[in-house]
Amino acid sequence: MQELPTIRCRHIREKDLKKIMEWRMQPDITRYMNTDPRLTLASQKEWFASIRDIKPFFYWMITVGGQDVGLIQIVEYSKDECEWGYFVAVKSARSLALAVSLELSLYDFIFTHTRVKTIYAKTFSTNASVVRLHELCGCDTIEVLTDHVHKNGESFDVTVQAMPLDKWQKIKTTHQYQPVEFESERT
């Protein structure tokens, strides 16, 4: 597998909000997301204030070689399960090696640092490369939610995939990837 510069995931900070806002409104990012928001810095600050004190805090800036390139997050977190998502906004940083490293490292981090038993990914079914990526990383497809997301006058199917803890424990040593360092405590 391609050797990448050091990959780290650090907790997002207020100074990151403008960059995250700009990334989140890029058409190539929003096309596979549930919404196409029109964000403002004020709305970003409100959002950040609403999540800032959540513990554990699962919103990280992805950095590659010291450069901020995207965002990875855990959403819908409970003690037993969670859902995750990410995007790499800097096109020159996008690669299969980075995607695999992020996904597998996230599984290892969550299963090591929480009591989560199952991690879910919900992906637009039209985003076939990411559905295949999750399969490559060992996820099982649980179901396809027909016409689950409605935006811009269109309906989209969503593929639900899962990585259970017991499966991760069996396969984690079978994958080759560059480990990603996740900041576990906020500074």
Descriptive key words:
187 residues; eight-stranded mixed beta sheet; 6 helices; 8 strands
Describe this structure in words.
The chain is of the alpha+beta class and 187 residues long. It has one domain (7-182): 3-Layer(aba) Sandwich (Aminopeptidase). Helix content is 30%, strand content 32%. An eight-stranded mixed beta sheet has the order 6-7-5-4-3-2-1-8. Helix 4 (96-113) links the parallel strand 4 and strand 5. The chain starts with 6 loop residues before the first strand and ends in a 5-residue tail after the last strand.
What is the rounded Rg?
16 Å
Number of strands: 8
CATH topology grouping: Aminopeptidase
Q: How much β-strand is present in the residues?
A: 25-35%
Total separate domains: 1
C-alpha end-to-end distance:
33 Å
Q: Tell the overall outline.
A: globular
Helical residue percent?
25-40%
CATH superfamily: Gcn5-related N-acetyltransferase (GNAT)
Q: How are helices and strands ordered from N to C? A: EHHHEEEHEHEEHE
The class by helix and strand makeup works out as: alpha+beta
CATH C-level class is Alpha Beta
Question: How are the secondary structure elements laid out?
Answer:
Elements: E1 7-11, H1 17-24, H2 27-30, H3 41-51, E2 59-64, E3 67-75, E4 81-88, H4 96-113, E5 118-124, H5 128-136, E6 140-151, E7 154-164, H6 165-171, E8 181-182
Parallel strand pairs: 1-8, 4-5
Antiparallel strand pairs: 1-2, 2-3, 3-4, 5-7, 6-7
